[in-house]
Design a protein that fits this description.
The complex is a heterodimer of chains A (about 350) and B (about 220). Chain A has seven helices and nine strands. By secondary structure, chain A is α+β, with helices and mostly antiparallel strands. In chain A, helix 3 packs antiparallel against helix 4, helix 3 runs parallel beside helix 7 and helix 5 runs antiparallel to helix 6. With about 220 residues, chain B is mainly alpha-helical. In chain B, about 85% of the residues lie in helices and about 0% in strands. Classes of the chains: A alpha+beta (about 350), B mainly alpha (about 220). Chains A and B meet through helix 5 and helix 6 of A and helix 6, helix 7 and helix 8 of B.
Chain lengths: ~350, ~220
């Protein structure tokens, strides 16, 4: 460790990674997507005109290649009768709905699939609810299988997924989520140094534990703030006493108490020993707080109550290429900050001793 | 003497000390009574959700004032004498068991008093009793250990609150949620799993406290 903190390659690596994360994470565009469709319901047998509001789309430029479908599954789909382009992001699609639906349900939701040469293919799930008066799946099947969805275009270049509610805020994954993971790594490192202090009684280990905990608290605060800003855009308000927000706040209080405890001891040996004991006890008390309790209650946060988290379409391969470097970058920068603070604490102690 | 004999003797000693002075227990009973009166006169009607919150607030503050004295009531010189006389871990275990029993008693007392004055909204008494026992264990383990930490400082009572309240929140959150089930405020199909989680938190904290205590008592 003592050798490593004088070397600069890992600090440079941290800076390079974070520059990469900020450039690619903020500048790469989102995939084309559909923001809204109106109307959202129709009846069988009518001719419905769906107005589509797109995002990052090129309807006007890709005029000739534009195609649209109402889709139930891979076999049952209906091609659009007519497509009227208003602008690059606005479009009207006309569907002549057959008299019967291909299901035995009264009301069925259909996804809207758009495809063109520039944007590739993209979907809005459950875009249109169709109600039928009388049910006859067999009749419906024959009417709805006339359109094969084939020869779809691919969208080129580096893009992040378009998720309807998230929009551009999906980029916060590189800050909120990766800061949180970096914080857990840093607190774990602080725990390791606390255990080391109890085994060897070296003042250095205590200074490391204290420096790492300081950086961990800083990352926790940043994670809480970035989370609150994200919540403002997706949940509607900065703070809603969601269980995750609540438990994170308590976790920060537990670690702030660590500094109150440290300030209560004038002599280094007792300060180091007792704060190390508290740090280990606090870490153990945190595990249920962060990983177990949020599973017991309803929460809006991803990963709870059936909400998706890091997986599926939320973290595709392009996002992984930025997300993992972000975690590593934040951890390295955190370690750099901690090592500076550690050296400062050490200089202070040595100047008192001599 | 072996470990458990020592533990038993220490528990007996704590109980005798308590019985002779009756200072702490009397104070706590007065504390619970006056809180009940304040809560009752301020709120008049305690609806079950409010009852649940008021109950655990009262238990929390009664617990902290009951446990805070564990390692403070005797001078540090006499503490050191005990540590040389018996296994230090036995001292911690004895305090934890004694505080668990004391808090269980306090919880039932609070339940009885609050129930007497405001009516008893608990629909499932056996579940509520089990929650009380597990909750008392969690409160006693955490607060006893925090009391041992804060006894090492000069302003131990303040530090006890600063260190103790955030650490007890995982236990308290689980308790409030479980007792909401016992009050039939909410349906819960995974109640057994939640009880196991609460017992798990208790045992985990107790294990860590036992491992860390040897580093704490030496001065």
């Amino acid at each position: 460790m003592e050798k490593l903190i004088r070397q600069s390659w890992w600090k440079a690596l941290g800076v390079v990674l974070l520059v990469y994360v900020h450039t690619v994470g903020m500048l790469a565009p989102l995939k084309p997507g559909i923001v809204s469709t109106t109307p959202d319901s129709a009846r069988t047998g009518e001719k419905v005109t769906v107005a589509v509001q797109g995002y990052n789309t090129h309807f006007d430029s890709a005029e000739d290649s534009l195609r649209a479908w109402l889709k139930l599954d891979d076999k049952r789909a209906l091609a659009a009768g007519d497509v009227a382009i208003k602008s690059e992001t606005e479009l009207e699609v006309v569907f002549s709905l057959p008299a019967y639906l291909p299901t035995d349900k009264r009301v069925q939701d259909f996804s809207l699939v758009l495809d063109n040469a520039i944007d590739g293919a993209f979907v809005r799930p459950s875009a249109l609810l169709v109600t039928q008066d009388s049910i006859d799946p067999a009749m419906g099947q024959s009417a709805w299988t006339n359109a094969n969805i084939a020869d779809l275009h691919q969208h080129g270049g580096i893009t992040f997924p378009f998720r309807s509610i998230l929009g551009e805020t999906i980029r916060n994954t590189y800050f909120h989520v990766s800061l949180w993971l970096a914080m857990v790594i840093i607190f774990t490192a602080a725990l390791v140094y606390s255990i080391r202090y109890l085994r060897g009684q070296q003042p250095r280990a205590d200074e490391w534990a204290s420096a790492l905990t300081t950086v961990g608290v800083l990352y926790g605060l940043l994670g809480l703030i970035t989370g609150a800003i994200w919540a403002r855009y997706t949940w509607g308000q900065f703070w809603s006493w969601d269980i995750k927000q609540f438990t994170t706040l308590v976790a920060l209080l537990i670690y702030l108490a660590y500094f109150v405890l440290r300030s209560a001891f004038p002599d280094q040996e007792r300060k180091g020993r007792i704060s190390a004991v508290y740090n280990i006890f606090a870490f153990v008390a945190l595990i249920p707080l962060i990983y177990v309790l949020p599973r017991l209650t309803d929460s809006l946060h991803p990963g709870n109550g059936g909400n998706p988290a890091l997986g599926g379409e939320d973290l595709d391969n392009t996002m992984r290429m930025v997300f993992y470097p972000a975690v590593l970058g934040w951890t390295l920068i955190g370690a750099w900050m901690a090592s500076l603070y550690y050296r400062m604490l050490r200089v202070e102690r040595l100047s008192i001793e001599n | 003497m072996n470990f458990w004999q020592e533990t038993w003797t220490l528990i007996y000693r704590d109980a005798v000390l308590e019985w002779r002075t009756k200072y702490a227990i009397g104070g706590i009973i007065l504390y619970v009574l006056s809180t009940v009166v304040v809560a009752y006169s301020a709120l008049i009607r305690l609806d079950p959700p409010v009852w649940n919150a008021v109950y655990w607030i009262m238990v929390l503050f009664a617990a902290i004032s009951a446990v805070v004295k564990s390692f403070i009531q005797e001078s540090s010189a006499r503490q050191l004498y005990y540590y040389s006389l018996v296994n230090p871990a036995a001292l911690l275990v004895a305090k934890m068991i004694y505080n668990t029993v004391l808090l269980t008693g306090l919880c039932f007392l609070t339940w009885a008093l609050l129930g007497l004055l405001t009516g008893n909204p608990v629909k499932n008494p056996s579940l509520f009793s089990l929650i009380i026992v597990l909750g008392s264990l969690g409160l006693a383990v955490t607060f006893t250990f925090i009391s041992a930490i804060s006894a090492k400082t000069h302003n131990s009572a303040t530090l006890m609150a600063v260190l103790g309240f955030p650490l007890i929140i995982p236990v308290l959150l689980t308790l409030v949620r479980l007792s909401a089930v016992a009050l039939r405020l909410m349906q819960d199909t995974s109640i057994d799993g939640d009880m196991v989680i609460l017992a798990g938190i208790d045992l985990m904290l107790m294990g860590v406290a036992l491992v860390l205590f040897p580093f704490l008592w030496r001065d």
